[in-house]
Amino acid sequence: MPHGHCQVCLGYYTISEFQILPCGHGGCSSCLDQIFDLVTQEGACWMCRQEFHRSRAHRIYIEVVDSKVAVLQGTIEGLEKMDAKVPVISVERASQRLKKTAQEIECDNEKAKSLQQAIEDFDERIVPVFKDVRAQAKELKQLRDELSRAKSRAQAFDEIRESSERKDLLINALRSELDQSKKDGQQVLSMMENLTTEHLSLKRQNELDMQDKKKKEDDNWKLRGTLERQAKDARSRKVKIQALKEEISNLRKRNESLEESQSVALDESLPVFMSDDYGDNSQNFLPSSSSAQVAPSPGRVRKKYRSFGLSQITNELHLANVDLDFDSGMPGPGFSSDWKMSGTVTKKKAAPTNFPIPLDKHGRPTVSVQTGPVRSRRVP
């Protein structure tokens, strides 16, 4: 009969002498009686310290089987569960376990002999079958592997076929695109030729425009230079005219001052001159009856001489020694007088010129003028 080990007194007792607590721990009956209180009949587990009542402890009611019989029973159950799917190595191990169990079991010779024959029969009939099954399973596995490889190759072939079909479709699409690209390229080439021709024409037109622009710029520079020179000449003429005006004004003032001084000198010398020429008979000096002129009085003569100028008076002074015949009357036809007024100022008429540019009163051109050579060089 199996025994148990008490964890309190460390003794070995049969299963019938053991008691189990609610916590799962157990011990012999004598040790449990010492643990519980005699009054309250309560105690605590010596392993986990769980408290419980004395009535909660109970005996173990279990039928213990011999280990050899249990091993044999387990082997038999394992043999019963074997089928075609069990590996061969499990069958071989079951045969070895049966042999070992048969050697350990102590029974009569007839049972042992029958068991030994059953084991030999198992080895002769079952193990070869399982070996064949194993070989067939191995062959079947190889066939399955070949089938799997064939399926994979077929799948690869299908993929290659599909890829080839896709490539064919792609090639056809690329060919159509290539044809379209060729057409587009031809159109682009024609457009390029047209654009090149147009570009060349535009380039030539641009060159002509640039030449025209350059020519106009040159003409503009020439006209600007001409205008600048004309403006400069106009300014110089203006300065010269202003200087001439000032000089004329000064000369006029000087002439007036000279005339005044000469008239004063004439006034002083005129009585002497009149007395020398006419003497005391100046009042009896009259023209002939046929003439309607009246001899001017000294006052009128003085005023007349004052208005003529210095040059006339000088001529009269030079002609004072000429003998005059006042009794002969007026001269006949065709007679020219010896008296000349050389001191009179006459306005000169401008000589006509063939100047090709019409000018206004200020000396400025009234129309557009182009002067200078076709090409000019500007001096920096």
UniProtKB/TrEMBL annotation:
Annotated RING-type domain ranges read 6-49
Which PROSITE patterns does the UniProt entry name for this protein? ZF_RING_2
Q: Which Pfam families match?
A: zf-C3HC4
| UniProt region (Disordered), positions on chain | 353-380
The chain's coiled-coil residues are 91-160, 234-268
The record's InterPro entries line, in alphabetical order, gives:
Znf_C3HC4_RING-type, Znf_RING, Znf_RING/FYVE/PHD
Q: What is this protein called?
A: RING-type domain-containing protein
Query: Organism, per UniProt?
Result: Lentinula guzmanii
